[in-house]
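Late entry, adenosine-5'-diphosphate complex.
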Amino acid sequence: MNWVWIGDNLGLIGGRILEHLALTAPPIVIGLVLSIPLGYAASRSRVARSILLSLGGILYTIPSIALLVLVPVILNLAILNPLNLVFALSIYAVAIMVRSAADAFASVPRDVVASAAATGFSGRQRFFEVELPLAIPVLLAGIRVVSVSTVSIASVGALIGIDQLGSFFTDAFQRSFLTEAIVGVVAILLLAALYDIVLSRIGRALMPWNRKQSAVMASPKVSTVPLGGSL
Amino acid sequence: MIEFCGVSKTYPDGTHAVQDFSLSIPARQITVLVGSSGSGKTTLMRMINRMVEPTSGSIEIDGQDISKAEPVQLRRGIGYVMQNAGLLPHRKVIDNIATVPRLTGVPKSQARTRALELMDTVGLDRALAERYPSQLSGGQQQRVGVARGLAVDPNILLMDEPFSAVDPIVRDELQQEVLRLQSELAKTIVFVSHDIDEAFLLGDQVIVLAQGGEIVQQGTPEEILANPASDFVATFIGADRGKRRLSVSQTQARGDDRVLVDAGGYPVGVIAAPEGRLAVSSASPKSRSVSNKTDQAGDA
Ligand SMILES: Nc1ncnc2c1ncn2[C@@H]1O[C@H](COP(=O)(O)OP(=O)(O)O)[C@@H](O)[C@H]1O
Ligand SMILES: [Mg+2]
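Prediction complete; structure with ligand written out below:
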């Protein structure tokens, strides 16, 4: 471990942490936002469910390096444009999140929705005031998985020259310099932990009804995709 | 008044839940639909607020065909109380009660004030207003459910086995509460139950249903008790003889007259043989709740 190198390169480390953050936050948000209507559709219809979940499964199995080569062609962007990475990460995020979102809406108690309908909630009101809030626990569990996986997969961007924490790995490899690799791993772990803490805080703030009995309601069944499967 | 005219409901999977059902439900009375599980009670009730659409036939409320009403508007004008209260777990008690008025555009503070009054009406301590439903007992949740059903001051209140999931002592209490509320508010209540005692206690009119929503008997509790229309009804009302509040005594018959006894075996009325009508007990709700009270004392 070369502490002197770390001391000399704090600026570089900080900068790459910020790059990494900037590249991973949008895909996580996009994954959540897109998965909500898709997951809702999947929870409403069997056909939609099987189509969307299979599609998600297929997308997730595309090797990330292949996707990163394909995306610039599809989007017609320069290969070094960071948007390519954001786009690819968003695809993975949606692919994982769609299943969680489908489970989340399926976890909303049917009799609560029925009684909301029976007391005069319109379809829209039912969705925004009943189904969406009650889906939060499972959505939250899903997005926490997505955040960790996105932070981890993003490092592959270094292979196509997009600078972020993964660049420490390519540098370390080229120069046979272990310290840089360790710095990269630790920083990625810390970033993943930061996302997790922030997301669970947001969840707590959004679910005041859950606080006094969080053990009961916040332990939903979530089907997760193994982490880093396509690295 | 609610009028079912030749109503049938076949679900998409082919289940004939209700077949050719016709019934007139009088205003400002409690009509109890009683029957065993699967007899179509919930289906019938949900057709009144268009949660379920009839396959054929029509339903009118005060002469208006409800198929022409806008479902969401229709439901906002009809109170609905269901078995597990169906409260919104993420809303406080007070907001659960205020929810329908809020949907219709009543300002928040006004809706909340009214919700607190309704808590008094249904016998809930105002201190519970800021709690979430999961922090209440089953009986308290049902009271919240009733308060919510009353929140828009509907003419019609639909109650689908509202008390079947609470323990017997609380159920007795809630049943008495319904009778008290009804004596004050005089709503048109359609009450679904699978419990014949509950039906006889609460109903001004009791409709005994068999599978497919077939009406096997309809009348006041006294009429049905005195003259079960068929073996089916006799079996149904005799199914839990030990617990039932009123029954026809086999041993205390006087000539052709039969004696009506409560659960403790005390005579409460005589059924005169020729007309088959009660000689002593009148058909008013008051006498029913009185005879019930004595028998509750006997149970305790
Ligand atoms: N949504 C549905 N789809 C298919 N069959 C149903 C549905 N709802 C109820 N049924 C069937 O219709 C019959 C009547 O049901 P229901 O009205 O719930 O009776 P009850 O309330 O008296 O128990 C039952 O056989 C039940 O299985
Ligand atoms: Mg039912």
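The interface with chain B takes residues 109, 111-112, 114-122, 125, 130, 133-134, 207, 209, 212-213, 216-217 of chain A (CB under 8 Å). Will revisit in the morning.
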